[in-house]
Amino acid sequence: KTIYLKDYTPAPYQAAYVNLSFNLLPGKTIVTSEVKYAKNPAGVSNDLVLDGEEQNILSVALNGQRFESYTIEDGQMRIVNPGDEFILTIISEIDPAANTALEGLYQSQGNYCTQCEAEGFRRITYYQDRPDVLSVFTVRIEADAKLYPVLLSNGNLQEEGGLPDGRHFRVWHDPFPKPCYLFALVAGDLQRVADTFTTMSGRQVDLHIYVRAGDEKQCGHAMESLKKSMKWDEEVYGREYQLDLFNIVAVSDFNMGAMENTSLNIFNTALVLAHQETATDSDFMSVEGVIAHEYFHNWTGNRVTCRDWFQLSLKEGFTVFRDQEFSADLNSRAVQRIDDVNGLRRLQFPEDGSPLAHSVQPDQFIEISNFYTKTIYEKGSELIRMQHTLLGAQTFRKATDLYFDRYDGHAVTCDDFVQCMADASGRDLSQFFRWYKQAGTPTVQFSSAYDSAKQSYTLTFKQSQPDTPEQTNKQPLHIPVAVGLLDANGKEVLPTQVLELTAREQTFTFTDLPGRPVPSILRGFSAPVKLETDLSDDDLRLLQVHDSDGFNKWEAGQTLALRTIERVMKDPAADISQYVADVGALIAQGLQGIGDKALLARALTLPMIGVIAQHQAVIDPAAIDAARTAIVHQIKRAHKEALAALYDANGNPGSFSITPEAMGRRALQAAVLEILTSTNGTGCAARAKAHYDAADNMTDRVTALASLSDSSQPQRAEVLADFYKRFKDYPLVVDKWFSLQAIANREQIFEDLTMLRNHADFNIKNPNRVRSLYSAFAINNPVKFHDPSGKGYAFLRDVIIELNTINPQIAARMVTPLREWKRYTPALQALMKAALEAIQATPNLSGDVFEIVSKSLNA
Ligand code: ARG
Ligand code: ZN
User: Fold this and answer.
1) What is the four-CA torsion angle of 583, 589, 591, 594, rounded to 10 degrees?
2) Which of 118, 297, 626, 697 is the most buried (most CB within 10 A)?
């Protein structure tokens, strides 16, 4: 059933309070919910309509009297005109142990936990499961004291005590009204790591991280990240935490990354646990970023929440922007931006170009879980970033202050957010709002002309918007384009200015320029567009060396690389010696110790296949890979000695740390090792194995394994075996062991995949493990996923069909790489389409999978 934004009406009833009581018993859980309802003056109906799924109602009482005049149909309980004010008590029975969908109350390794966003609360009790119904929750949990010593819910602990038969209880109270998607409960045998934070007004907050026994040593980084996040939100946004306690619980079975339940964040272990021996630098960065993300939701999501799920990006886009900026402030701004933009291009741009393209504020959906997308999150963040760019940091802060003032405790829309930006700045942002409504990645084309007589320079921009499903003839957008100018020697003659495009075509003139400048356009990637440049290779080379904007410096090199790849794709014998020499100059700079190592690592890495694919009219991953690999081989052959020297110069300096400098060093070695091992010979394998053997940290181990993954040398198996033996008791590392094999571009891959699928450690019910095999393969092994035999598609198809009944959310998510089938060669298209059709023909297809598959096929 499709739900439309235009059909929104306020909830008919408000909930004054919600008292929940959970009796956790073997084989079943009894939930008692007592809610005081009052008619919503803004409501348009008199009927109380409660959502409920996957539960048996044991009894219903209205104002304490047994009540049976309700109907239940399509997962909704309806009570016709129950009155202006009343108390409804519903007792029901649920079965958390049988809940493999991991929505609502479920069990993970024996412990109980919840996931209610977006619509999981209805699997716990009948309620108006919508974000605009805010209420004060009191939660009593009763369970066996030995098996479940830890009992948690939102807010403050109000009461606790022992009960007969070895049972105990706790009562939690959250004084701040909240929507039910932020409700959480945890019961289990967990260890607590504790610290404190003193807020800007001097209040002390207890910080607790709960993990399984043995994992306590891996919590330090998450705890530090939490304290840094709390401080940053005070400093940058003036936002203070309101409660005396902040809990984080790590669980192994989780559909997403983490969840911001008020004062009781629940996390995938993958985003809490981090130790040098088991986590890579990128894991450390993700933990920091996601801890921050969930903490920041306290203000952007919880205290100010969404009116309805069409507004999901109100909280997610803004919170992603906040966590990206936090990470940029704490680490390297340029590196952060490069990595974020790379992710956007590799994963969001394809979504925008697919049948599933949707706007940041969508108009319709069937299953809201399918809208936790790169568009809502990452493009949504870009929309906030553009407003930050247009307003400037100070005015932006004024606007967010206004937003929090105006809407604390309210459920609002993306329109309300942008209105605050407009009110605080005095700017008209109505055209800007089109970004929220128009799907698809815009293209911005620019051309330039220098008039030596007038010493003036003009930049002409043209913007266009692609048609997307159900959206054609789009309007021009308000696009901030950050521009700087360099002279022929690379000196900056015009510092960054933000040009504002509002028309289809616009010209900007710069005067007093004695020579033709080289423009640095879209600095910092100031708008999520595809930029078409008329710059010459020489201009790009100048920017690659001299641009003061770290992002555009990298971008210039990537554009040169893309041009080279396209040349080789057209003509494998093309002369690319100039490009190879340019790379040589970068290596030489690195050898002299010039510049940032992390940036050099990224400059030495050719664009990934998924990014290159975005520039192709018809995608042929094998052809892209062949060209890309041929170029890497030439780079290796031309610069073998210099690369080896650069590798040696950046070896392990002794003690491990995760400073940007240390991470940059490891990233540089990894980038160099990838080039050095690209030819897969014995020397390569020996070098990679030596890297592995010398490693005192997981980053270096993974670097070595990744560079051996395609190898046909014996070292590959040796290192993989050692890795498994060493880390078999660490599920998150076993995930890496699965992934490192799934991404191998080698002949035997399909045998490997079968072996991994049948491995004793594979578990279809654990999303991390499923992703470690299937997502790693389908997303990070484009060549073999798109194998002309169709075996890659069949492998994915089968797991989607299997997961359809076990975990529909994960099943639907797995369809992602098939969505873009029309972008591929005719032969691949036919095979991808067949896989989609086979999934569509599955009996009992879940709504989640149905939506993605049918939209993929129909567009
Ligand atoms: N709000 C969570 C976040 O921090 C995501 C939870 C989504 N859960 C889901 N089942 N779709 O981004
Ligand atoms: Zn979020």
Assistant:
1) -140
2) 297
**134 CA distance to ligand 2 middle (Å):** 19
How many A from CA of 262 to the centre of ligand 2? Answer: 13
Atom of ligand 1 nearest to the CA of 259: 2
For residue 859, what pLDDT is reported? 65
For residue 582 and ligand 1, the question of a CB distance below 6 A is answered with no
Q: Could you read off the pLDDT of 502-524 as tens digits, one per residue? A: 999 999 999 999 999 999 999 99
DSSP states of 464-519 as a string? E---BTTB-SPPPP-EEEEEEEE-TTS-EEEEEEEEEE-SSEEEEEE---SS--EE
Write out the two tokens for 833: 């389409």
Is the CB of residue 138 less than 8 Å from the CB of residue 17? yes
Distance between CA atoms of 174 and 136, rounded to whole angstroms? 6
Tokens of 447: 């051309």
| CB 423, CB 406: distance < 8 Å | no
Which ligand lies nearest to the CA atom of residue 261 in the structure? 1
* Residue 751 among the catalytic residues: no
Q: Which two tokens stand for residue 738?
A: 């699965």
Cα→Cα distances 278→234, 452, 598, 702, 717, Å: 32, 60, 21, 10, 20
**Residue 479's beta-bridge partner residues?**
501
In a 13 Å sphere around the CA of 826, the CA atoms on its Cβ side amount to 0
CA-nearest residue for atom 2, ligand 1, is 259
Element (H, E) at 460: strand 456-464
- The token pair at 8 is 């929104």
Whether 118 lines ligand 1, by a CB cut-off of 6 Å, is yes
3-class state of residue 11 by DSSP: coil
Residue 25's H or E segment, with its range, is strand 13-25
List the beta strands (DSSP E) in 278-359.
304-306
Task: Tell me, using a 6 A CB cutoff, whether residue 259 lines ligand 1.
Answer: yes
Give the model's pLDDT for residue 653: 76
Low-confidence ranges of the chain (pLDDT < 50): none
Ligand 1 center–CA 717 separation, angstroms: 38
**Does residue 372 have its Cβ closer than 6 Å to ligand 1?**
yes
Ligand 1 within 6 A of CB of 316: yes
Which among 706, 655, 659, 656 is positioned nearest to 685, based on CA atoms?
Answer: 706
Please tell me the distance from the alpha carbon of residue 339 to that of residue 323, in angstroms, as a whole number.
13
What pLDDT score was predicted for residue 680? 87
The pLDDT value given to residue 788: 98
Candidate of 100, 256, 296 to mutate for ligand 1, largest count of ligand atoms within 8 Å of Cβ: 256
Read off the pTM.
Answer: 0.99
- Cβ 256 under 6 angstroms from ligand 1: yes
Q: Which one of 117, 288, 294, 820 is the catalytic residue?
A: 294
Name the E strands within 116-166: 135-144, 150-153, 156-163
The reported pLDDT for the residue numbered 654 is: 81
Residue type, 618: V
**Residue 562 amino acid letter:** L
